[in-house]
Write a structure and sequence with these properties.
This protein is of the alpha/beta class and 677 residues long. It contains 16 helices and 36 strands.
Amino acid sequence: MQTSTIFLIIGAAILALGIAVFQYFYKSKYKTSRNRIYALLRFLTVFGLLLLLINPKYKQVTYFTEKPALAIAVDNSASIEHLGYDKRVREAVVRFRESEQLQEAFDITFFKFGTTTEPLDSLSFSEKQTNIAQALNSLKTLYKNEVAPVVLLSDGNQTFGKNYAYTLLNTKQSIYTLVAGDTIVYDDLKLGQINVNRYAYINNQFPVEIFATYNGTNDISTQLTISSSGKTLHRETLNFSPNVVSKVINVLLPAEVVGVRQFSIALSSIDSEKNTTNNYKNFAIEVIDQKTNVAIISDLVHPDIGVLKKSIESNRLRSVTLLKPSEGFGKLNDYQLILMYQPNRNFSNVFDEINRLGKNSFIVTGKETDWRFLNGVQSIIRKEITGQKEDVLADLNLNFSSFLIDDLGFENFPPLENSFGEVTRNGEVDIALNQRIGRVRTDDPLLLAADQGGKRSVYLLGSGLWRWRAQSFLDKRSFEDFDNFVDKLVQYAASDKKKSRLDVDFNSFYYGNGDVKIYCQYFDKNYVFDARATLNMRVVNKETKEVYAAPFLLQRNGYEIDLSNLDAGEYSFTVTAQDQGISRSGSFTIIPFEVEQQFLNANIASLRKLSSDSKGTLYAIDDTEMLINDLVTDDRYRPIQKSNENVVPLIDWRWLLAALVALLALEWFMRKYNGLT
């Protein structure tokens, strides 16, 4: 407490005493023995009121005991059940929950993981893929400021993601691995990764890269066979030994029929092999007969052009040609879409030919754009000419309905460079992104789509897309999301399909280990997105004739249905808008892909390295009690007594207010009782 506050309190006590003495001894007409009590009450009341005015602060210290956190992460993937350890994993979880010693020593949280990580409520062992690295990184982030050991109950078999044995070298958490799987090594042949393009062109050959591995102690020989529709397309003999444990096989296969084609790859089994499930794999391709050709026309050398080319060609159905404005004239009929980057007066012939041919266009503007020229050659937007430049941020418009756009985190993307000036729109346009200056969202569009007079146009009013692609990679550790965003813009702009009230977005085939999701958009008679519609889907298995029916769920500016529970096979479907007489039909294929059944043993080597590098220990699942005892007796994980010190102003002490009220009431009652006014 400060010295000045102490002097104020002393002064308040003297003043309160003076008031009490003055009223009950100096000024009082009746001096009785009760005056001392009255004076004491008045002194306490006045002193309390003065203390509230001074409002001194005091320190309040509370003590509490904090137990260390313990995270128990349980593998919920199908490989646990395939290896026959599902029952023992459930028993181990029960032991952790019922251990009184563990409950007293730790603040325990249970998690389950497969494709994602979430709190553990129940175990189904139905996850189709496993990402152990993602689970461990999630726990590392959650407990980054704590000493929190992690118990990883898993077989160590990961189907996608980074190698978890090398991703947590600097973690503070010790990881104790409880192995759910056989540690005995058997002779085993296995088909690993299959690399193949999603699309191929009719009457061409497409490459397939196959990884095959052998785990064993003998020299063996096996037959690799690739077949489709009961026809063998390729056969090859592979030889393995303890010194030759892996092979990479490259094959060219013919694309003879348009549509989705399924292929099967098989390795003939050996006598001592225990698990033959991982000797077989399926894949599919879609054979197409044409490619979307995109011309990017620019008078500038800019990193955006390379980014656009890379993103567009990430879809193998697209081909990009870079042209100067002078080179484009007379050639534009060879392209389905013309992308013009920061047009100026040199683009005059290009615009004339686009208008003559009725071509769709995609225009990207920036600080080098000649807006006097651009305002004169197209009528969809006009921009005020000021000669000044500005940086603009992006805000996603949730009412955009021309096609589905996922939120890539646009609000966190770097700004784009633009010419300063108000934008005027002519006719009906659909705004996907609005401009934002600092924290102020404007009505000016940043990205818009237009469908007028049978021609589609996309306008991006800012340059610097290369920064967006780089930021997307930093956020997602992949270019895929940004490239898909650009691909949807190109797909919309390149299409000459008339707008429909019911649009269905789906893939021709899906792999059984991934999500099977279909998206829809429904519009009213004015082609405005209608969020009140009831959309239903009827799916029929072409082989078994089994019917699955379910409604779509509203998701932002579209509808979504998840069909991941369907078995592998070929399906036809019909989407119907209830009470509207509108429907759309299609078909898709789910390719069999049981990646979780490819494993024969637990991955002891990676689990041991993970435990060793994090200063933890590896245990067999039968040693659960030993793990519990080691955690409880480890001196690194002891409850810690902590103190919490708060500086509290006296006015927050409610008991003082209550005491003042009581003192005043008591003094008033005693004075009235004794006949004093």
